[in-house]
Amino acid sequence: MTTTGIDWSSTETPTTAEGWVARAAEVSALLAVDAAARDRAGKTPYEEVKLLKESGLVTLLGPAEHGGGGQEWPTAYRVVREVAKADGSIGQLLGYHYLWFWAARLVGTPEQVAAVEEQATRDRAFFGGAVNPRDDDVVITDEGDTLVYRGRKSFSTGSKVSDLTVLEGVLEGTDKHIFAIVPSDTPGLVFHDDWDNIGQRLTESGGVTIDGVRVDWAGAAGYRDKQFTPRVYNTLNVPTIQLVFVNFYLGIALGALEIARTYTRERSRSWLHGGYERAVDEPYVIDIYGDLTAKLWAVEALADKVAEEALVIHRDPDAVTERLRGEHEVRVAAVKARATEVALEVTAKVFEVTGARATASSVGLDRFWRNVRTHTLHDPVAYKRREVGVFVLRDELPEPTWYS
User: Fold this and answer.
1) Does 77 lie in the same domain as 169?
2) Residue pLDDT, tens place only, 355-404
3) How far apart are the first and last CA of the chain?
4) Residue 355 CA to its chain's centroid (Å)
5) Is residue 404 a part of any domain in this protein?
6) Helix (H) or strand (E) holding 298
7) For the segment 146-166, what is each residue's pLDDT rounded down to a tens digit?
8) How many CB atoms lie within 10 A of CB 372?
9) What is the pTM of this model?
10) Sign (positive/negative) of CA torsion 239, 75, 39, 295?
11) Same domain, 331 and 272
């Protein structure tokens, strides 16, 4: 991918949710042209991220007065889904960017939120994050006016293609977690080329070493005079990013179904003993497409509904109660479970309706299953179903953790 083919500077910036989704569809169409070849090559997606910037998609959640889209999470989720139809890796990168751009609102002071969002929107900065909770926490040393981060994270999605990186660690001798945003080219921040997984190959999700990265206390998100005032809204990072997951899973599945449909219409041969001249007339082929499409449409509708339900939370963060947060997490857990199962089924079953020749590397149909299979192992879906079951049977809310 060497050029976008569109002069975005001469196009009108979208002002509505539907306009931004249409913009995402344009980006998706460009990504789709050589998506299979780029997946095979596995090169760092500098051009792809450039496309996200030039199209304005990276500014979707940014304030309109600073050149951003001024949109809310339901639109961001739909944009992620649209981009992921063509390329699951780029859909994930964009979704994670939205999460880390929004992280200032999650935990920052009003002054920090305003400063971060103005600068990042105007610069069209792309965010990555070194916040993998499965690793031992990065240790932060207090040196008076300065914090020093040291440690290593196994995963840092966005790494080399990011302009800004969100760091997280624990202040030495305490249980205080501190988030901070630093330029990705900060000395002491070393990204490793060790992402070599079967799917989501272009997400730049390799490890990172954090060796003496210095941050002023003023940059410690949410802290005043070295003290943090917690609120329930601070725990919304998990359900929010889980909905990001849901939407790029659905996008990947929708993309697989679209590629398969085109292949069946144009290239699949009917079974020589089936009695039909065209593959599109075979009853079992029709049945599978109908079944998979109905399942995807149902989960899409649930995903959109859950995203809309969360607007009351995001619009009034200080009013969020533990009950409201917990019930939202249960709904997110439910749609996460269904999206995982349906995406895996769709991306595997499309081969049954395309035929043996569709397994050719040139078709690239396998990348959809590899992408979904890789990321759906992020956290066990059984524990999502458990959250729902415990709530239904015992009216118990999920305890806020890094995964619930």
Assistant:
1) no
2) 999 999 989 999 999 999 999 999 999 999 999 999 999 999 999 999 99
3) 38
4) 31
5) no
6) helix 283-309
7) 999 999 998 899 999 999 999
8) 29
9) 0.97
10) positive
11) yes
Among 272-276, 351-355, 370-374, name the one with the lowest average pLDDT. 272-276
Tell whether the torsion through CA atoms of 178, 245, 200 and 403 is positive or negative. positive
Radius of gyration of the chain (CA): 22
Residues 143 and 276 in one domain: no
Q: Which tokens is 94 given?
A: 């964009």
Q: Tokens at residue 308, please?
A: 């809309």
Each residue of 274-283: b (16+ CB within 10 Å) or e?
A: eeeeebbebe
* Domain that residue 106 falls in: 8-126
Phi, then psi, of 139 in degrees rounded to 5? -95, 135
Let me know whether 261 and 386 are in one domain: yes
Domain boundary among 126, 144, 167: 126
Distances (CA, A) of 299 to 117, 146, 285, 338, 342: 32, 47, 22, 7, 8
Residues 216 and 239 in one domain: no
Question: Which residue in 268, 303, 288 sits closest to 345, CA to CA?
Answer: 288
Helix (H, G, I), strand (E, B) or coil at 182: strand
The residue whose two tokens read 């450039």 is: 50
Residues with Cβ within 8 Å of 324's Cβ and at least 6 positions away in sequence, in order, are 232, 312, 313
Taking residues 256-270, report their average pLDDT.
95
Question: Which amino acid does the sequence have at 360?
Answer: A
Q: For tokens 């849901």, name the residue.
A: 246
DSSP annotation of 338:
H
Range of lowest pLDDT (44-48, 127-131, 233-237)? 127-131
